[in-house]
Here is the input.
Amino acid sequence: MSPDPSDTLLAAQRRSAELEARIAEDPARFRILTGDRPTGPLHLGHYFGTVAGRVRLQRLGVELFVLVADYQALTDRDVAENLPEHVDGLVADYLAVGIDPGKATIFTHSAVPALNQLLLPFLSLVSVAELSRNPTVKEEIEASRRAVSGLMFTYPVHQAADILFCKANLVPVGKDQLPHLELTRTVSRRFNDRYGPVFPVPDALLSPVPHLLGLDGQKMSKSRGNAIPLSLPSDEVARRIRGARTDAQRRITYEPDTRPEVANLVRLVALCQDRDPVEVADEVGDAGAAALKRLAIDAVEGFLAPIRAARAAYLDDRAQLRRILRAGNERASAIAEDTLREVRAAMATDY
Ligand code: TRP
Here is the structure.
């Protein structure tokens, strides 16, 4: 029987708290691999959900690999048409929020052949039944309403190659990615059992920050039009926040369970200004939703203005941006080739 998903989540949360303590003690023992599909600019949900955590861990001294998952983005046919634009935008987002290319390795799938080659032996280690059970892939297939490509079905195995090529032992993720990480752990164990010890069995690190919802109270996502991208111009920030859903009660409180939309706006202010949400709600109090929205517009604008400017500057100098990406690709390739050499030796295919 497969474990109850809520047990898995609880276990991952407990484990993440332990890991945070160990990271603080000895950051040099950890290597992080994380990444995003280049499907459009990062939004505040991405930022507070995972990206801010990467910057924090980088500052603590953990080594960071950040993947622009361009081959994984091919699961979405519409995105595939604008890939270079999306890739440059995502790299500019990373740099603008403080991922330091002097310390971190920023790279793309398509430029690291040895990473992609790991997919083949890894595919031999998982069954079609296991791939069919993946709840995140199932949801994506349901949402896409198109013929399911072979890539859609197997991308979690490719993701195992993303993580294992550089022998990362820590993967900061949201809970939708936990099934993928579980598969990576399975691939790693099976490879090591069959061919000898090559790979670590990486841990998930769940973000300790509560999730930011979209402005309609649903999951924040680009496709729902309820997101605030880091690149959003200030008049558009104001327009979207003014249009955010609230409720009929005048007094502003922070009650995520019973007043999710209001609580989400409060949380948005709290995150952008690094404050306690209850204090933010008390400050607005009887001034009501309009005052809360004005505060949110100011908070988001104060937070985004420097990021927006930095992002635009990176995109104005594409040659420099591509130089940064190329340096990351070269470094990732060198590491992937070393790992592939080990894999071929372990498999006795190093003819
Ligand atoms: N699947 C991730 C997403 O949709 C992106 C991703 C690709 C990733 N490879 C990864 C995340 C490896 C963590 C580790 O956001």
Notes: DSSP finds 15 helices and five strands in the chain. The two ends are 42 Å apart (CA to CA). Strands lie at 31-36, 63-68, 105-108, 170-173, 203-206. Residues 288-316 form the longest helix (29 residues).
